[in-house]
Write a structure and sequence with these properties.
mainly beta; 20-stranded parallel β-sheet; 14-stranded parallel β-sheet; about 5% helix
């Protein structure tokens, strides 16, 4: 009997130890590539028992010997999350109950280039796994050399498409559309709407292009005071391009719901509520829009009164959901929002970069509704109510880096509705009032902030009213603060930068930066936030001797190749050229 009891005790103890021991992490399957963009390659990996695991990411050009470090993959919160309507939202990727999702991107890559990605998983128990994937960044779309060109002029039918006998009117041209056709729309006003019924093929698109002999206008024909409909309806189609067109006089100028591989390039959008809209989807299959070098000219006032803010329409230059989208080198002004993602079955692997956005009475850009691997970088935002919104985002990572923001009236980063998974790195913001603030009682989770330069004119340097869970903030620079408090964080107040470094759970390496000596241009924080500042004059490159020089942390994949003793704070390293914002000169 004694032996039986002892064996039972051993069995119970063994079972207790086995049940409570931490299991070693192990992949649930191979890593998965997200759709590529011009400069980014995203990936995710599901790891069983991955609560304590880490996953690093390295990349190299195919055939190269040396690997470069990308930012490590983010251990994504489990969720469920809440959408803007406070309804539950699960991760877009199905993750088993005993597993965790890791996701991340290799950034600032070369376009149209083959790469290898190497992922290494490890955990404290010694578990290890390694996988190498091959991927290729996309090229900017190029028309096929053997495309058939058909000439078009305004009219109501007739013509064979030759230079001497052009097709007359959009409807007649659309009937002749087939893969590999370029419609050269000669100068004049074409009565819309243009309803696209024919799709091209991958690598063999249908292209609607201005003829180059004057302005080609597609006119939705609605009066400015009663805008409705769409000037171009490209719904449920694929491989259709629009180039060098002036599009105007409709509520939406291009409506692209449920469509794929749409190119919109070097067009001029005016007199509308929304420029490009592709948000309605039952399949979740809106994908691979390429939107570049366009001008979006809105009619919304800036600044606005509170009454106007509530009464004005949801005017957005670009509003898109889905995956694989690139919106780059666009000039956007006088809308409610400039560049917006949105909530759908899943929004992931999209890039907004090198855009010039100004005079927006709400957000410069919204990453709202993103799931993972969406990226907002190298943009310039001027004269906006809030800078870049992440309210909410669902797990991430959502990368916000190397952006310049000037004259943001309220929050630089809008983190409302319990977002999770933001990465805020190397941004420069110069504004009136509090340099950095989040005004909501709802929590943020899994946010990471490094090497940002945040300058204001008065008040606390950093004021977060929200609870902050699993956050890691450090190495940011602040200037222009006044008063008795430097930081409010998780309802604790810290009177000075010295008190923050001694007692706060964040910002052990934060620095104070004098706005008067921060920038080589001599630009100062705006004293009047209602003034309209010319975005083309905003030069926030650092001045030698500024406290922002050599004050950052080394972050592989974000600041490779820095020149000084350490990376500089903000969007620009000392002595670098300004990125190109807005449409590029034609070659």
């Amino acid at each position: 009997m004694h032996i039986a009891r002892m064996l039972l005790a051993i069995a119970i103890l063994t079972n207790f130890v086995a049940t409570n021991a931490q299991a070693a992490a192990a992949p649930a399957g191979p890593p998965v590539l997200d759709p590529p963009t011009l400069q980014s390659l995203g990936v995710y990996w599901i790891i069983r028992d991955g609560d304590h695991a880490k996953v690093t990411l390295e990349y190299r050009k195919e055939g190269a010997e040396t690997w470069s470090a990308a930012p490590p993959l983010l251990l994504v919160d489990k969720g469920p999350f809440k959408n803007e309507g406070n309804e539950p939202k699960k991760l877009a990727v199905e993750v088993p109950a005993d597993a965790r999702l890791f996701a991340g991107s290799a950034l600032l890559l070369d376009a149209d280039t083959a790469y290898e990605l190497r992922l290494k998983m490890s955990d404290p128990d010694g578990a290890h796994a390694e996988q190498t994937l091959k991927a290729r960044t996309i090229a900017e779309p190029q028309a096929p050399k053997n495309a058939v060109q058909l000439h078009v002029m305004p009219g109501k039918g007739g013509g064979d498409g030759s230079a001497g006998n052009p097709i007359k009117g959009l409807a007649a041209a659309e009937k002749a559309a087939k893969p590999g056709t370029i419609f050269l729309l000669h100068a004049g006003v074409y009565e819309g709407p243009l309803t696209i019924a024919h799709s091209g093929e991958q690598g063999n698109p249908i292209i609607w292009r201005g003829g180059g002999d004057g302005e080609t206008v597609i006119d939705g024909m609605f009066p400015k005071e009663k805008l409705a409909g769409a000037a171009i309806a490209a719904i449920g189609v694929h491989d259709v391009w629009f180039e060098k067109l002036s599009i105007r006089n409709a509520y939406n100028l291009i409506r692209g719901h449920e469509s794929q591989r749409i190119v919109i390039r070097r067009c001029h959008f005016a007199t509308c509520i929304c420029g490009i809209v592709a948000t309605d989807t039952k399949t979740g299959n809106i994908s691979n829009f390429f939107i570049s070098d366009n001008v979006f000219e809105g009619d919304m006032p800036w600044p606005t009164t509170m009454k106007e803010w509530h009464e004005l329409p949801e005017a957005r230059a670009i509003w898109i959901v889905g995956s694989g989208h690139v919106a780059c080198y666009n000039r956007i002004h006088h809308f409610k929002d400039g560049l917006d993602l949105g909530d759908t079955k899943a929004t992931y692997a999209c890039d907004f970069h090198n855009n010039e956005v100004s005079d927006c009475f709400d957000d410069g850009s919204e990453m709202d509704g993103s799931d993972r691997n969406t990226r907002n970088f190298n943009n310039r935002y001027t004269n906006v109510l809030t800078g870049i919104s992440l309210q909410p985002v669902y797990g991430g990572p959502i990368y916000v880096f190397r952006n310049v923001l000037f004259n943001v009236q309220t929050e630089v980063f809008k983190l409302h509705n319990s977002p999770s998974g933001g990465v805020l790195v190397h941004n420069t913001s110069v504004k009136n009032g509090i340099a950095s603030m989040v005004n909501t009682s709802e929590s943020i989770s899994n946010f990471y902030s490094r090497n940002n330069l945040l300058l204001g004119t008065e008040g606390r340097a950093c004021n977060y009213e929200c609870p902050a869970i699993h956050t890691d903030y450090d190495y940011d620079g602040f200037g222009g603060f006044t008063g008795e408090l430097f930081l409010k964080w998780n309802n604790e107040r810290y009177p000075s930068l010295a008190a923050v470094k001694a007692k706060a759970p964040i910002y052990k390496h934060a620095v104070a930066v004098d706005p008067a000596t921060a920038f080589a241009s001599g630009i100062m924080p705006p004293q009047d936030p209602k003034k309209v500042y010319d975005s083309a004059t905003i030069d926030l490159r650092l001045k030698a001797g500024s406290a922002a020089i050599d004050a950052g942390e080394v972050l592989p994949g974000f600041n490779d190749g820095f020149k000084g003793a350490a990376p500089d704070l903000g969007a620009y390293e000392l002595g670098t050229a300004l990125p190109h914002y807005g449409p590029r000169p034609e070659k």
